[in-house]
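As the next step, I selected for study a record pairing a protein sequence with its backbone structure tokens, which the following lines show:
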Amino acid sequence: MTISTMADINREIANRCRDNGLALDCGADGLFNAEIAIIGESPGERERFMKLPLVGASGKKFWDFVRDIGINRRQVYISNVVKRQLRTTTDDKVNISRNEIDHYASILNWELQQLPNLKYIVVLGNYALEAITGLSGIMHHRGSVYQSSIKSLSLGTDRQVTVVAFLNPAAIIREPKWEIMFRFDVARLSSVLKGEYVQHETRAIINPSFNEAMQYIDKLVDERKPISLDIETIANETACIGFANNADEGICINFRDRKTNIFSTREELAIRKRVQMMADEDSVRWVMQNGMFDSYWLAYKDRIMLGRSYFDTMLAHHTLYPTLPHNLGFLTSQYTNHPFYKDDGKTWREGGDIDTFWQYNVKDCCITYAVFERELAELRNQHLDKFFFDHVMRLQPHLIGMTVGGILVDRALKAEISESLAAEIEELKEKFYHAVAAATGEDDYRPNPASPKQMAELYFRKLRLVGRGVATDVKNRKRMKDHPRTTEEGKAVIIAQDKLASQTKFFSTYVESVVDDDGKFRCEYKQTGVQAAPGRLSSTSVMWGSGGNLQNQPGRAQKMFIADPGCGFSYFDLKQAEAQVVGHRAVIPSWMEQYAQSRIDNSYDAHRALASEMFDVPYDEVTKEDWEEDETTPTIRYKAKRCRHGLNYTMGPGELSEQISVPFREADYLHRVYHRKHPELQKWWDWTFEKVKKERQLFNAYGRRLRLLERLDPAMLSSLVAFYPQSTIGDKVSRCIYLCESDPDWPTGKARMALNIHDALISLHDLEVGEQVRKVMKRHAEEPLQIEGIDGISRELIIECDLKASVADEQGIHRWSGLQKVK
């Protein structure tokens, strides 16, 4: 049969679907002689009804985007891989077998073979990517350009077509923040169609001899250009170090091949010493992607101290676009014409050539350099370069020092806690099963308390408890426990599981965490770690698997962490920092007065003042305590404090009720009273929303930017208003780290910053310099802030800090838990 029209193609699609037992909800459309084919994943509800591809909501979004580059549906061929609807009206995805997808893909391949003028294929989503290129993972490959071989029936030979990978536009409807990625992809397609696209190629020097490696390092130093560095690891050891001072060529100094070491011990030592000498050169400016990892790894594993990096592409991108991904795969698609290659770092392990791994290392170096050049220009054009270099990059080496330094662990105490807690967990588990048996009447029924599926079976089928949906997490367990229909036996089960879950988490997360061979616990501080509050640090375990989050250690775990012999800890915590920033930003006179009085009179309590204001009770009659004598009933001071911590950022009465454990009616009353007393908060919210709508960005007090790239949605309000106070305080605490360690009065060599705990810092120091250290910490913690209010007036804010110092226990050991207030 000769195929020469769209009608011919659709008749044959129908025949092939029928012959293979496949459903056909929607065929192809468009221009038979088109040069461009648009291939989607599957038809939606409207496509099924209209019998036309890409006419629903996602199709409209696609055509809206590509119209700007001169593409419309009358000019292109349009089809789907799967010819039947896979998403229901509730957006649930219908299951489809691999065999069925393959049959549909073969029909699509036949379609494309019929198109006489086909030159370009735009694939929308993962099924389309797999069907055309054999690759998988659209979030990785989107924005990449590939060459694919398609048989041309009119020519009788294979022909090369250019494939451009896009996200499925339906994904943008579900997650608006991905819209910016789609715009990147459209720009990439435009450059391909205009003939402007040139694929970025890199040249890799691998397996160098000792002399070649040393000479190349000398060349890099002599040329005095920024140098991109990247390491790769195998079996927890440094496998290679790569360098490049341009985007096109680099070297991988690999220390081994698949079987043996390449260099002698003397040669390898000489190379490492030469790398250290290179790092010590004043002219060397390191460029890295996530240089925190490379730097602390080399410092701890190889004793190579890279010093302060010049540029980190991950941190630069976070400075420019904090809400986007910052991994090198994404940056490659945004800033270069190199296709996605990050899988190369893994596939060689599956029987491939290890040389692929060394080439991958060079690609990382060259791509990082290419990204650096583009980002540097963007930082300058957007006037963020000063903030980036003076704050973001200035902070990084101090965080590396905190990671490498670590904190000692009392291993004997840790082992003692581990043993006693393991026994306690077994006892709690038996109490849980006893409660289950009492509630169900089934003595042999022993559901796994760690299994959400089995616990859902217990709570909702057997005990018929009422929560929100069928989740079994701690929030829904609280809802079930508080529900009036829950029996005492049912409550006993929930209480038993809560206790067991709490102890199990403490055991697995904290007590069983891995300590390094030198007896120290380490964490990696992430400058990109808190997307909702750029500027705040997060922490996690180090890349070789030990350590963990040091910012959220519970009080009972803090006893395990001890100072080095002859040393102690000093601590500061900014008092009610976010609330003070909110008061100045929203221009709330009563708050500004309360906090000013609190700084003058240390006995004055701003939370008591707020409670007095909210509950119309004289200040002197407001208790200083958070709990009544029964130790379970919250006082009005506690309620006021929790309102201030939560309701500033648009929290509703339902969540407030859960947070402070009061009935919804009381939470609703507190919510109304709080906002009636502080109408300035609503004005601040409205002002923020309008400012973002107009300018699409916000800046904190230090110049950090939050840029809105997606459509503005009222649901974003809470994160938008929280940005200024949370980000400002995050940056303020981070500034204290490098300001203290750079202060002329800081006893360098006898003190270092050891821990960041959100709004607090802990330093480790020789005992005789403790007072000196605390004076420096206080000086920088209480450095005045300039807060611009929504009235356009800038006001100075000094946030007072609480100071603490560790006191030796009966064994003469200074512990984290032994911190006590000092003046």
